[in-house]
Design a protein that fits this description.
The protein is of the alpha+beta class. The protein contains 3 helices and 5 strands; from the N terminus they run H-E-H-E-E-E-E-H.
Amino acid sequence: MLRTNLLIAALSAAALTVGCAPVVGQNGFQAIDAKPTDIVAGTDTKQTVLARLGTPSTTSTFERDNIWYYISQVTEKYTYNRPQVTQRSVTEITFNDAGQVAEVRTLGLDDGQHLAMNGRETPTRGRQLTILEQLLGNVGRGQLPRTDEDQPGQQRRE
C-alpha cells in the first residue's frame, strides 16, 4: 500500500514537472556553415554573401536591393500561454553601388521598438446582422429549381 502511494506520488510529480517545460521553437534564418557576423565590410560582395549565407530573409523596400536582412528568433511556449520571443537576431548587410559590403550590423531583441497599433476598423456598408439573423437568414427562402441545364456560366431560363 505504501509503495503504491509512493509510486503514484512520484508519477504525479514527474507529470507536473514535464508540464512545466517550455516548447522551444527556432524560426527564421539558421546559420549552417557560416554566420552572418563572418561577413567582412569592404572585402565581400553580393555574390560571396549569397554563396556563404544563401538568400536573405528579406531585402530593403526602399533601397533598391542594397540592404539584406538575415532574421532569426527563438520562442518559448509554456502550456496554455502565448509564445514569448526570448532571442532575436537581425543581421543587416548594406551594400554600396559597386556591390561590395559597406556595413554589417547585428541587432538583438533589445534593439526592437514597440509600436502602438490602432485598434479602429474601417466601417463597411450594410447592416450589422445578429447571430440569430445569420443562422436563420435563409430559413423560409425556397431553393431555386434544379434542372439539367444548371451548369456554371449558363443563363437560367424561368
